[in-house]
Amino acid sequence: QVQLVESGGGLVQPGGSLRLSCVPSGSIFGIHVKAWYRQTPGKERELVAAVSSGGITTYDDSVKGRFTISKDNAVNTFYLHMNSLKPEDTAIYYCKIKLTGDKNYWGKGTQVTVSS
Q: Is the Cα torsion angle 82, 83, 85, 88 positive or negative in sign?
């Protein structure tokens, strides 16, 4: 069974930085897409950043220039480097992978709170 475990969330001041990690495990033979989403209470989950197996990255306009998604092609673990954090970045962040067969798997989320 495929499982994703997130870590790295916490409380930071505006302008600070965090690095989120996502560690997939299980019967994984090929990951087509690795992505990070975020969600606040009462709002729909939204895509933050994604990277394809070919290395193509996409970012939401609100995080361009501040967040970076990274991966090591030799391992399944991937990261979200968050810099210049703003209060509006506060959310639960979820990692997601899309496997062969176009099936998505989600982590349980990690809380990021940006506040002074």
A: negative
User: 73 phi and psi, to 5 degrees?
Assistant: -65, -20
Residue 110 tokens, joined: 């990690």
Pick from 29, 37, 27, 20: which is nearest to 77 by CA?
A: 20
Buried b (16+ CB within 10 A) or exposed e, 31-47: bebbbbbbeeeeeeeee
> Which residue in 116, 96, 99 sits closest to 107, CA to CA?
96
Q: How far apart are CA 59 and CA 25, in angstroms?
A: 25
Instruction: State whether residue 89 is helix, strand or coil.
Output: helix
Q: What is the pLDDT of residues 3-50, one digit of tens each?
A: 999 999 999 999 999 999 999 999 888 899 999 999 999 899 999 999
